Automatic annotation (TrEMBL):
Belongs to the RIPOR family. It comes from the Eukaryota. Coiled coil: none annotated. Residues 2-277 form the FAM65 N-terminal domain. The lineage of its organism: Eukaryota, Metazoa, Chordata, Craniata, Vertebrata. InterPro entries: FAM65_N (IPR031780), RIPOR3 (IPR026136). It comes from Falcunculus frontatus. This is RIPR3 protein. It holds the Pfam family PL48.
Length: 277
């Protein structure tokens, strides 16, 4: 292997997240998902570049005003602009470092993925050849290499998740037209991996809706999708309205994303959410 397991973790100063605390040599928690990681990485990098472009445009605008103000010698306003410019410049440097770190992690991930694929192909070739002492020793070594590459990929996935930011999810209410009547009560349950959000709402007489919570912060996950379940509350009984899943790959963008999810198969009840990354 051109990149050993210890060198991967030391070079990235990798501190395993809680999900990987029980990971030991030869004991794998789950199989890596290279295609899913690639999809999230591309969406993440695109979103980070959008933020970078937006702040660069803001910096250009402030710098232009800074020059005009300097010529007009309005000192108080000039120094306030100077402070804003320095703040935006610091944030741009932070974003650039963030992007470079994400790229570094994904590059290391791709290396380990290629090493694992190569070791897997060689293992299959050796397993089809006549059994000799040398081939058996090679198979043992190749099996060890596959395990180590797989562990490295799991650790890098955990490190990459640290750089995914936060999703601020806002409840915007149910849409159901004739299906929603004054006095109806509903419970919405949103889950992303181990993160859960349970909130209750009521349809008022003026057709407005009141909910006991309006916003929840979720930490993005490489492998898990949003699972949304809506139930209607009727006294002590509950009636399942519907369960849907929603991929988070489209949420890595600078603009708030309005989501309208069909809760029932026919779309007679929909759930409106807003996600800000």
């Amino acid at each position: 292997k051109s990149l050993s397991r210890s060198s991967v973790r030391s070079r990235m100063s990798l501190k395993p997240p809680k999900a990987y605390n029980s990971l030991q040599k030869g004991a794998l928690i789950w199989d890596p998902k290279p295609l899913q990681v690639k999809k999230i990485f591309e969406a993440l990098k695109k979103g980070l570049n959008e933020y970078l472009e937006a702040h660069q445009a803001e910096l250009d605008y402030l710098s232009g005003r800074h020059k005009d103000t300097k010529r007009n010698s309005r000192l108080a306003f000039y120094y306030d602009l100077d402070k804003q410019i320095r703040s935006v410049e610091r944030y741009i440097r932070k974003l650039e470092f963030h992007i470079s770190k994400v790229e570094e992690l994904y590059e290391a991930y791709c290396i380990q993925c290629r090493l694992r694929d190569g070791a897997t192909n060689m293992k299959q070739a050796f397993s089809l050849s006549p059994s000799t002492k040398a081939s058996r020793e090679s198979l043992v070594e190749l099996y060890k290499n596959v395990q180590e590459c797989t562990e490295d990929m799991c650790f890098i996935e955990g490190a990459l998740e640290v750089h995914l930011g936060e999703f601020h999810v806002k409840m915007k209410g149910l849409v159901g037209f004739a299906r929603l009547c004054p006095g109806d009560q509903y419970e919405v349950f949103v889950r992303l991996g181990r993160q859960k959000w349970r909130l209750k709402g009521k349809i008022e007489t003026d057709d407005s809706q009141t909910w006991d919570e309006e916003e929840k912060i979720f930490i993005p996950n490489l492998h898990e999708k949003f699972e949304i379940k809506v139930t209607e509350l009727r006294g002590l009984a509950t009636i399942l309205v519907g369960v849907v899943t929603c991929d988070s790959v489209d949420f890595f963008t600078t603009k708030p994303q309005a989501i309208i999810v069909d809760i029932t198969e026919l779309g007679t009840i929909k759930l409106r959410l807003e996600v800000l990354w």
